[in-house]
Design goal:
The structure holds three protein chains of three kinds. Chain B is an all-alpha fold. Chain B has four helices and no strands. Chain C contains five helices and two strands; from the N terminus they run αααααββ. The longest helix of chain C is centred in the middle third of the chain and has 26 residues.
Chain lengths: 495, 115, 164
C-alpha cells in the first residue's frame, strides 16, 4: 500500500527546498532533482495493479477530498515519472550550454511533475482544477525559459490560450456544482444519473470538454502547440509533448467521458471526427516544415488524433489501441525531442537544411533517432506498429472502414515525413551543409546518452507488453473504462 | 437572471482577448473573464435573506444550516483568486520582457514564429 | 521618473505611524482565520501590503533594507515547507495525511482562539508564504526599470537589471 500523498508531497517539498539550499553550492539542484524523480519512478512502479481510495484527513467522500488510484491512474503515473526521470538526466548537461539559472529550472520542473501527479490522482473536480493550474503555470514559465524574443512570444501565446481554457473549465465546474451540489466526481456522476437531463448539463459538458481539448491540442484548438514546443528547452519539450498534453488533456477527457458523464454515441462521433481531422491536418502541415522541432510538434498533434480515434470507438479493442498508443507515443516522442536536443547541443541549429551526415559523427544519437522514426511510422517490430495495428483493426471490427483508411493514409504520410528527416539530417546532406563545422562535431556527453539508450530499448521491447491482449498488463485500464460510470461510483463511494 | 449577466461579463472578457491587438488589453480581458467566473461561483452560494456562515456559541446547528449562506463557494473562490493572481503576475512579467525584445505592445508586429 | 526618493513628508510621517498597525491587522486576520472570515490568503496579502506601502512611501532601498530579496525568498520557501511538514506530521500522529492531530488533546472547548487543532498553524504558514511571495513579485517587477532609446527594433537597455 503506497502512501498516495507521497506523490504530491515529495516533488513540492523538494521544489521549495532547492532555492533555500543552493545559493552557494552549484551541484545541489541537479542531484536533488534526479534523486527525487528516481524515487517517484520507483514509487509509481510499486503502485501497479493496486486500486484504492485515500481519504485525506480521515473525512470520507463526499465530505472530504479523496485521492483515487485505479488502473488508468497507475499507467499515467508510470508514464509521467519515467519521462520526467529521463528528462532530468538529460538536463544535467544540456542546461550548461545556453541557460544560466538551474535552480529555478529544477524547482519549476518539480512543481510541474507534482502538479501532474496530483491531477492524475485526484478524485474531485476542483482539486483537479487546482493541480492542473499548478502544472500549467509551471509549464508556461518553463516554455519561455531562455528569454529570447521568439520564446517569449511562444510563451505568451501558450499562456493566453491555456488561461482561457482554464477559465472555461472553472466555469463548467461552477455550473456542475450549482446543478448537483457536490464536487466529488463520483458523487456528481451519481446525482447526474438521477436528475433528468437539462440543457445546462449539456452546456457544462461542452465547456469542460472544449477546455480540456485546448490543453490536449486537438485540431480546432491546436494553435499554441507548434510555437510552444520548439521554443522550449529540449527536456521541457519532451515533457510537454510526451506527458503534459496527456496528463492534463487526454487523461481528464477519458475520465470525464467514461466515468462521469457516460459514453454516448454522440460523444463517440465527435471524438472520432476530431481525431481523424487531427491525424490528417497534423501530418499534412508537418510535411512542409524544415525546422526539426516544429515538425515533431505537428506530428504530436497527429498522433494524439490517433489516440482520440482509438478512445472514441468505445469497444474494448479500440480502448486497448488508444491507451497503448498513448503509452507508446510518450516513449517515442520524448525520445525524438531528446534527440533533437542532442543535435541542437552539438550543431547549434534546428534547421534540417544545415545538418547532414550525422551518422558518422554522432552514432548513438542517429541510431536512436532511427529507432524512434521507425516507431512513429509504424514499422514492425517497434511499438508504434502494434498500437496502430490495433486501432486499425478495432475500426474495421466496429464497422467503420473509412476511419481505418484514414489511419493508414496518416501512417504513410508520417513515414514519408520521417524519411525526409533521416535523409537530410542523418544519412544525407542538407542544402546548406557546412563541411568545416561538421568536422568538429562529436558525440554528446554520457549523461545525455543514457536516457536516449534507455528509451530506445524501451521502444523496441514494449510491443511485448501486449502479450495476453486484454487480460494482460493493460487489463485493469480497460476494466476501468469499460466499467463506465457505475463501477467508478461503486469504487469511490462504496455503496 | 443575474447568472445570465455573469455570462455576459464572461463574453465581454472573451471579446477583449480575441479582438484586441494590444498586449495589455488582452491581459485586462483575461482579468475580466476571471472576475466573472469568481462572481458566478460566489453567487451560486447565495440564499435569500441568509446570514453569514459563522457559527456563534450556543447556536443550534440545524437551524443555522437552514439560514446560512453556503460557505463552500467562498473557499473555492479564495483559492481561485490566488491562482489567478499567480497567472496574472506571470503574464505581466512576460509582457514586460516582450516589450524589451520587440519594442512594441502590438501583437501583429510579433511575427517571428510562422508556418 | 523623478530622482527624489519616496513621496512627500505628510505621506512619510503617516506611514511611519501606521505601518505597525497595518501589520498587526494582517496578523489578526491570519491568526483568527478559523473563527472569523479571513485566514491565510487575505492575511498574507495585508502583510505584503505593509511592505509595498513602505516601498511606495520611502523608496525601494529603505524597504529592501527591512526585508531583502534573499530573506523574502527564504521566507517564501519556509512557509511552504512548514505547511507540508504540518500536513505530513498528520501521517505520523493521526495515521492519515493532513489529519487533525492536535484536536483530541485540547482542554479549552470550541469557539476559542486555541481550538481547531492544526488549522491555525496552517493559516500562519500560508500567511507567511503569501506575504513573502507577493512582496517578491512586487520588488522584482518594480526594480527593473526600462529605459528605451528608439522604440522599434533598436536595443532596449534596462537600468539596474535584476539577475534573479
Amino acid at each position: 500500500m503506497v502512501n498516495l500523498p507521497l506523490f504530491i508531497i515529495i516533488p513540492f517539498g523538494v521544489a521549495f527546498f532547492i532555492p533555500m539550499v543552493s545559493r552557494k553550492v552549484k551541484w545541489v539542484p541537479d542531484v536533488l532533482g534526479n534523486i527525487t524523480t528516481f524515487i517517484l519512478l520507483v514509487l509509481s512502479l510499486m503502485t501497479l495493479n493496486q486500486e484504492f481510495v485515500y481519504h485525506i484527513g480521515g473525512w470520507h467522500a463526499p465530505f472530504g477530498i479523496v485521492l483515487v488510484l485505479d488502473g488508468l491512474s497507475c499507467l499515467l503515473l508510470v508514464i509521467i515519472n519515467l519521462i520526467s526521470f529521463m528528462a532530468t538526466l538529460f538536463s544535467i548537461e544540456y542546461l550548461e550550454k545556453r541557460f544560466t539559472s538551474k535552480l529555478r529550472y529544477c524547482s519549476l520542473f518539480l512543481l510541474m511533475v507534482g502538479g501532474m501527479n496530483g491531477t492524475v490522482l485526484s478524485g474531485d473536480l476542483f482539486n483537479l482544477f487546482v493541480f492542473m493550474e499548478i502544472a500549467s503555470i509551471a509549464s508556461y514559465a518553463l516554455v519561455g525559459f531562455g528569454c529570447q524574443a521568439s520564446e517569449l512570444e511562444a510563451s505568451f501565446k501558450y499562456l493566453v490560450m491555456g488561461n482561457v481554457a482554464s477559465l472555461f473549465i472553472l466555469y463548467a465546474v461552477a455550473l456542475l456544482y450549482g446543478k448537483t451540489g457536490s464536487l466529488n466526481m463520483a458523487d456528481v456522476a451519481r446525482i447526474l444519473k438521477e436528475i433528468p437531463y437539462d440543457n445546462l448539463i449539456g452546456f457544462a459538458f461542452v465547456l469542460i470538454i472544449s477546455g480540456f481539448m485546448v490543453k490536449s491540442a486537438l485540431v480546432p484548438f491546436h494553435a499554441w502547440l507548434p510555437d510552444a514546443h520548439p521554443s522550449a528547452p529540449s527536456p521541457i519539450s519532451a515533457m510537454l509533448s510526451g506527458v503534459v498534453i496527456k496528463a492534463l488533456g487526454v487523461y481528464v477527457i477519458i475520465r470525464l467521458v467514461y466515468n462521469l458523464f457516460g459514453f454516448t454515441p454522440l460523444i463517440s462521433q465527435v471524438l472520432i471526427y476530431l481525431g481523424v481531422v487531427s491525424m490528417i491536418v497534423g501530418v499534412c502541415l508537418a510535411l512542409l516544415q524544415w525546422d526539426f522541432k516544429r515538425l515533431l510538434a505537428y506530428h504530436s498533434i497527429s498522433q494524439i488524433g490517433y489516440v482520440f480515434v482509438g478512445i472514441g470507438l468505445g469497444t474494448p479493442l479500440g480502448i486497448l489501441g488508444g491507451i497503448f498508443h498513448l503509452f507508446n507515443h510518450s516513449l517515442f516522442k520524448s525520445l525524438l525531442f531528446l534527440d533533437a536536443g542532442s543535435i541542437e547541443y552539438e550543431t547549434g541549429t534546428r534547421d534540417l537544411n544545415r545538418m547532414g551526415l550525422l551518422y558518422k559523427k554522432m552514432p548513438v544519437t542517429s541510431l536512436s533517432t532511427l529507432f524512434a522514426s521507425l516507431s512513429i511510422s509504424g514499422i514492425p517490430p517497434f511499438n508504434g506498429f502494434w498500437s496502430k495495428l490495433i486501432i486499425i483493426l478495432a475500426a474495421i471490427k466496429a464497422g467503420r472502414p473509412v476511419i481505418a483508411l484514414w489511419a493508414v493514409i496518416g501512417s504513410i504520410l508520417t513515414l514519408s515525413s520521417f524519411t525526409k528527416v533521416c535523409r537530410y539530417a542523418l544519412y544525407g546532406k542538407g542544402e546548406k551543409f557546412d563541411r568545416e563545422k561538421w568536422e568538429k562535431l562529436n558525440e554528446v556527453p554520457e549523461t545525455m546518452i543514457v536516457p536516449l539508450i534507455i528509451l530506445s530499448i524501451l521502444c523496441f521491447f514494449t510491443g511485448l507488453l501486449l502479450i495476453n491482449g486484454e487480460n494482460g498488463i493493460f487489463g485493469p485500464v480497460i476494466d476501468v473504462l469499460n466499467g463506465g460510470v457505475l463501477q467508478y461510483i461503486y469504487k469511490v463511494l462504496g455503496s | 437572471m443575474i447568472y445570465y449577466l455573469c455570462f455576459v461579463l464572461f463574453l465581454i472578457g472573451l471579446y477583449g482577448v480575441c479582438c484586441k491587438k494590444n498586449v495589455v488589453k488582452i491581459i485586462l480581458g483575461l482579468w475580466v473573464m476571471e472576475y466573472s467566473v469568481n462572481l458566478f461561483l460566489i453567487l451560486l452560494g447565495y440564499r435569500k435573506n441568509g446570514i453569514a456562515p459563522i457559527l456563534k456559541k450556543g447556536e443550534d446547528i440545524v437551524e443555522f444550516s437552514q439560514k446560512a449562506v453556503d460557505p463552500l463557494p467562498q473557499a473555492l473562490v479564495l483559492t481561485s483568486i490566488v491562482i489567478g493572481l499567480g497567472v496574472l503576475a506571470l503574464m505581466v512579467t512576460v509582457a514586460i520582457r516582450l516589450y524589451q525584445r520587440y519594442g512594441t505592445f502590438d501583437i501583429t508586429e510579433m511575427k517571428k514564429l510562422k508556418g | 521618473m523623478n530622482e527624489e526618493k519616496g513621496m512627500s513628508l505628510i505621506v512619510k510621517t503617516v506611514t511611519r505611524w501606521l505601518k505597525g498597525f497595518i501589520f498587526l491587522f494582517g496578523a489578526y486576520i491570519v491568526v483568527f482565520g478559523h473563527l472569523s472570515p479571513g485566514g491565510g490568503f487575505p492575511g498574507g496579502v495585508v502583510f505584503a501590503a505593509t511592505f509595498i506601502l513602505l516601498t511606495l512611501a520611502f523608496g525601494r532601498e529603505y524597504a529592501l533594507k527591512k526585508i531583502g530579496k534573499i530573506l523574502a525568498s527564504e521566507l517564501d520557501s519556509l512557509g511552504a515547507i512548514l505547511f507540508l511538514l504540518i500536513a505530513t506530521l498528520g501521517i505520523y500522529f493521526g495515521g492519515i495525511f493532513f489529519s487533525n492531530f492536535i484536536e483530541k488533546n485540547h482542554p479549552t472547548g470550541n469557539f476559542n482562539l486555541f481550538s481547531a487543532g492544526i488549522i491555525p498553524l496552517c493559516q500562519i504558514s500560508i500567511g507567511i508564504k503569501v506575504g513573502a511571495s507577493l512582496f517578491m513579485i512586487f520588488i522584482i517587477l518594480a526594480v527593473i526599470r526600462v529605459v528605451f532609446e528608439d522604440g522599434k527594433g533598436k536595443l532596449i537597455t534596462t537600468e539596474k537589471k535584476d539577475k534573479k
